[in-house]
Amino acid sequence: MATWTFLTNHAHVLLCVADNPNVRLRDVAVQVGITERAAQRIVTELEEAGYLDREREGRRNTYRLNTAMPLRHPLDRDHRIGELLSTFANTRSQ
């Protein structure tokens, strides 16, 4: 496995949620290569920052991304997470 990547674990979690709004955190953790606890922490951080909303439906969560939110780094603040997601969603579906 690579020692570093261009996208953070936060970005990878967003991509997983974008692919499946009903995804289980256990599955997110496996896909991203992190622990389930780390996936939970990232989702909580993203929710607290306004990047996603979580709604409980029975025993499952459904996530809704706020695609108009800006990227957080000062160099990237002119871009929205929707741009990131659409770029990678197109790449992943090919």
From TrEMBL:
GO terms for molecular function: DNA-binding transcription factor activity. This is MarR family transcriptional regulator. It holds the Pfam family MarR_2. InterPro entries: HTH_MarR-typ, WH-like_DNA-bd_sf, WH_DNA-bd_sf. Residues 9-58 form the HTH marR-type domain. It comes from Cryobacterium cheniae.
